[in-house]
Amino acid sequence: MASTCEGPITFEELIDGLLELFSKDKESIVIEDVQAFFNRYVFNPADVAKYAKWDKFKYTRNLIHEGNSKFNLILMCWPEGIASPIHDHADSHCFMRILDGEAKETRFFWPRDHCNPDGSLIEMTSRSVGAGVTAYMSDELGLHRIENKSHTSKLCSMHLYSPPFSDCNIFDERTSKKTNVNMCFYSKYGEKEDVKKMAAATAAGKRSSQMAVPS
Q1: Could you tell me which residues come within 8 angstroms of residue 138 by beta carbon, excluding any fewer than 6 positions away?
Q2: How far apart are CA 164 and CA 212, in angstroms?
Q3: What is each CA distance from 205 to 50, 127, 184, 211, in whole angstroms?
Q4: CB 82 within 8 A of CB 148
Q5: pTM for the complete prediction?
Q6: Element (DSSP H or E) covering residue 17
């Protein structure tokens, strides 16, 4: 079994091993085993070259593998100085392997648990996550923000979400206001998506659901 060995692994072996590790339900996942397995992958830029789609104004989410509907494996490409919103993870496991560059992760308390008198979010911890490290996050651990603090170097990270989710909540740091947002991919399997068309279709779907009469 690929996930029980200890040596370095290739990109193809990484995919095969993840399919094996996530073949059962969410509760059976051993977080430390997944992190250790991710860390065995020896990153080669050629492995993800076809998936690496960049936008100079924002980070991009590029789908690599759908994991037999058990997980989504995503390549995220972060230009210089770009950060994610503060967000939750829709009750899913989140693994983040840094491939190239250095990420800053800032965690926050859930506002329902702790917030400042003015309603702003309270920072819990902040740390740097370097290349070769696999971080873990879940809703049980709070909210977080990921950012590329460098203004001279790009950041490339591989994320696994299990179970996959199509929407999550983002939070305003100053007010704790929560907003539900739909997740979309900048590309799938190396082919760029028409993001504007997808956003329009999502908005139309929301309007239709709001106008529908419940049965």
Answers
A1: 89, 91, 92, 93, 94
A2: 27
A3: 31, 39, 14, 10
A4: yes
A5: 0.89
A6: helix 11-21
Strands 93-100 and 134-137: antiparallel
For the chain, the 3-state helix, strand and coil shares in percent, each to the nearest 5, are 25, 35, 40
- Asked if the bond preceding 45 is cis, omega within 30° of 0, the reply is no
CB distance 82 to 58 below 8 Å: yes
What is the SS3 string spanning 49-110? Answer: CCCCCCECCECEEEEEECHHHCCEEEEEEECCCCECCEECCCCCEEEEEEEECEEEEEEECC
Q: Which two tokens stand for residue 109?
A: 């308390």
Give the residue among 156, 149, 148 at the shortest CA–CA distance from 49: 156
Interval 34-68: pLDDT, tens: 999 999 999 999 999 999 999 999 999 999 999 99
Sheet hosting strand 102-108, strand order edge to edge: 123-130, 102-108, 143-147, 86-87, 167-171, 178-182
Dist. CA 208–CA 213, nearest whole Å: 10
Single-letter residue type at 185: F
How far apart, in whole angstroms, are the C-alpha atoms of residue 94 and residue 23? 16
Residue 57 burial class via C-beta count within 10 angstroms: exposed 0-12, middle 13-18, buried 19 and up: exposed
